């Protein structure tokens, strides 16, 4: 099952609850951080493509330097994605195949924007909240200015399109307790209806 949602929607909180319920959770953002951490599997290719200035002293991706490079040279963004996206996908597939459980959850922030993951999934679940709530949550959590949050949201699929494409939706306008109850209900539904389906 694929889990997604806009920035600040509550994807991580939903994924955490699935994990508490014993469901294997594979998070593509976590895989990306592991691939680009000290000694990560993608770092040799990144160093070859961008030079040692793209690395921190401990051999991890220098995210601030790469953000600046991508900002000043859009081709660099495509070059970095060409290294990372196939590696993230391959590791996601490996972990899905190794997952032990009735079903697994694959967390992909840009699930509908990057459609390569969709053939792996039996269903898609969107965590949703209204846009002002998204903005306030990200400003509070990350310390971003409103303009910065809106820019990130503008690069993602519009909310109404994400909802249109979802098989299932969790409404996260009411807080963590309500979110967890909805995850519990979805878990029960998936166990009853989707066991033995391909995840």
Automatic annotation (TrEMBL):
Gene Ontology terms for molecular function: dephospho-CoA kinase activity
InterPro entries from the UniProt entry: Depp_CoAkinase, P-loop_NTPase
Pfam families assigned: CoaE (PF01121)
Top-level EC class as recorded in UniProt: transferase
Pathway participation: Cofactor biosynthesis; coenzyme A biosynthesis; CoA from (R)-pantothenate: step 5/5
Binding-site residues, ATP: 8-13
The reaction(s) this protein catalyses: 3'-dephospho-CoA + ATP = ADP + CoA + H(+)
Keyword annotations from UniProtKB, A to Z: ATP-binding, Coenzyme A biosynthesis, Cytoplasm, Kinase, Nucleotide-binding, Transferase
Superkingdom as given in the UniProt entry: Bacteria
E.C. number(s) listed in UniProt: 2.7.1.24
Principal subcellular localization: cytoplasm
SUPFAM superfamilies for this protein: P-loop containing nucleoside triphosphate hydrolases
Localization, UniProt: Cytoplasm
Record's function text: Catalyzes the phosphorylation of the 3'-hydroxyl group of dephosphocoenzyme A to form coenzyme A.
Family: Belongs to the CoaE family.
NCBIfam families assigned: dephospho-CoA kinase
Name of this protein: Dephospho-CoA kinase
Gene: coaE
């Amino acid at each position: 099952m694929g889990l997604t949602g806009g920035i600040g929607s509550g994807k991580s909180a939903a994924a955490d609850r699935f994990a508490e319920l014993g469901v294997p959770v594979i998070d593509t953002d976590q895989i990306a951080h592991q691939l680009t951490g000290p000694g990560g599997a993608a770092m040799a290719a990144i160093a070859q493509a961008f030079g040692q200035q793209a690395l921190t002293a401990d051999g991890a991706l220098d995210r601030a330097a790469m953000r600046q490079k991508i900002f000043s040279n859009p081709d660099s963004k495509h070059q970095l994605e060409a290294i990372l996206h196939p590696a993230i996908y391959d590791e996601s597939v490996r972990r899905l195949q190794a997952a032990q459980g009735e079903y697994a959850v694959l967390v992909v922030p840009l699930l509908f924007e990057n459609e390569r993951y969709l053939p792996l999934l039996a269903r898609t679940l969107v965590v949703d909240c209204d846009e002002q709530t998204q903005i306030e949550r990200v400003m509070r959590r990350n310390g971003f200015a409103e303009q910065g949050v809106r820019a990130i949201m503008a690069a993602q699929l519009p909310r109404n399109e994400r909802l249109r494409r979802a098989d299932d939706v969790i409404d996260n306008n009411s807080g963590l307790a309500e979110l967890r109850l909805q995850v519990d209900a979805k878990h029960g539904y998936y166990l009853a209806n989707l066991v033995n389906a391909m995840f």
